[in-house]
Amino acid sequence: MMPKACRHALRAGVCALLALPLAGCFEQPLSILDPAGPGAAPITQVWWVMFWGSLAIYLLVLGLATYALLHRRRNGQAPRRALLIGGGLALPIVVVFLLLAYGIRSGQAMLPLPTSQTVFRVDVRGHQWWWEVSYPDAPGGALYSANEIHIPAGVPVDVHVSTEDVIHGFWVPRLGGKIDAIPGRTNVIRLRADAPGEYHGVCAEYCGVQHARMALVVYAHPAEDMPARLAALAGAGVDDPADLQDTQGARDFTQHCLACHAMNPRERSSQPGPNLADLGVRAMLGAGTLENTPEALRDWLRHHQARKPGNRMPQAGLPDAGFDAIADFLEHSSTP
């Protein structure tokens, strides 16, 4: 009869295998098991290699433990030297070496190597706790946005990642691995979306109290539609300073918000605040904190410290009518 300890271990292994299909790892927005580009596919392969390899090692250890319990040597001693050298030294060295070699090969797809294809460039700068996005090669000059990245599908995209403050981690799991944003450095990762779609990302390096609310979304468009998307961004916002005095909302925005938030899509905010030129067409507010609806925008303006405590935006001392006026201005001015 199988010893009780072995029965428990076998039962645990069977339960783990049965639970895998229920783990919710497949076809999820942040799943590495649902790759959507050549940068993510090798990572998925490494994951499966590690999973099946770990399962094989687990079963091997389970089998050896069962054998040792059922077939003790006459003197009661197990072959310690063979187990020590084989299982404790040789096996880990071989496994780690194979994983290292396979992992290095898998990372080649994310290196910005020379290519005959046209490469689309996006600059992403991490802030506590949001993402600054710019398109330096856009027609007519650089364009600025925040927390949403628009790229052409089927085209290599070099993402130049940097940071304004602390270390952040740029990671879009379905398109590739993560890369750190390190103060004083710019790191480059090459991604490509095989098909148009929406790909979610996060900050993968703890960066402070609102680390969990630092989401981003990558929108991959058909390549032929990308010029129109950039043109729409260029046409959003306010490029004439006189327009900032037309309404009460514009005047309130100029007085309380303009020092940190640019409204011209071709200007980088002078202070660490997101460019709001295309806010009206963004899906989320506060880097994924709230869905972007008229009601949520007004709630965010009034209670942003309650919704995302510790964020760098100061509280404006305005009556409700003032917040409503600013919200109206943003809704009408930030829609292409």
UniProtKB/TrEMBL annotation:
It is found in: Membrane; Periplasm. One of its GO terms (cellular component) is periplasmic space. The keyword GTP-binding does not apply. Subunits I and II form the functional core of the enzyme complex. Electrons originating in cytochrome c are transferred via heme a and Cu(A) to the binuclear center formed by heme a3 and Cu(B). Its EC number is 7.1.1.9. This is cytochrome-c oxidase. It comes from Verticiella sediminum. Pfam families: COX2, Cytochrom_C. Residues 244-334 form the Cytochrome c domain. The chain crosses the membrane at residues 49-70, 82-104.
